[in-house]
Structure formats: C-alpha cells, structure tokens
Design a protein that fits this description.
Layout: E1 21-24, E2 28-32, E3 41-46, H1 58-79, E4 83-87, E5 105-110, H2 128-140
Antiparallel strand pairs: 1-2, 2-3, 3-5, 4-5
Amino acid sequence: MREGAEQSACPFCLLNDPDVTVFADALVQALVSRAPINRYHVIIVPRAHLERFAEVPAATMAAVVSVAQRIGSAIALAATPDGITYITDDDLTGRGYNLVAHWKLHVIARFRDEAVRIDWARTEDPGPTVRASLAADIRRHLPPPL
C-alpha cells in the first residue's frame, strides 16, 4: 500500500456490485468497467488496496493472472473478438494518470473495426551496446521478490 493511501476512500476497495461482477474471491474481483473501452472491457482488481504493479504480492498477482486467463477465455467465446488486450498502468507521479489510485488489470476485447488504437510509436533499435547498458542499469535497481 502506498504511503498515506486511504483504503476507506478508494472506490475500488468499496466495490460490491454483484450485477456487474464477473468473478470474485478473497483476493480479487473482476467486473465490467464503468468507463469501458468497449462492451467487453473487464477490470480485475485486487481486494487489498495497492496502487502500483510492483506492490502486488506474488500470491495476489498469481490470482490476478489466473483470473485474467479465465476472463479472456470467456470474453473470446462471448464476444468473438479479433484479439484481447491485457494492460495495466502505474501512476508514478501521483498526478492523476489513473482515474482511480488502485492497481488493476484491464482485459479488453479488441475488434478490427473499432476506433481504439494502441500506438507504440517505436524508435529505432539503439543497438546491443546501449541495450546492454540499459539492462545493467535496471539490474542494479532490481528489488528482491515480494
């Protein structure tokens, strides 16, 4: 949990809407999004108040991934999409990058004719020397497992 985070004020911590809940257990709940990208946009939310991906305990993350696999399979059958996107964001600066300061995994059906596009705007490969330097820098800051 982030320093100063108020679980009682978090709308995701207070979620209890069986009608839009797809799955729920002691660790996670999955529900159809209130602000969907499309009709089959599901969010998987840990019950514990966690704001960043790196804070999610391994057991909770395993539960999220297991539920995401099941939800993705169900969406594939229910919506017959062209693909499914699994995506998450961290608001590292606290400036409201996420609408709700509670970590979640989005599972979104994707259709070829939809207006939603994820444009990675990739740059050229910087080369193996630069990539090796970046890898070394990341390794130096790699925390122990949760």
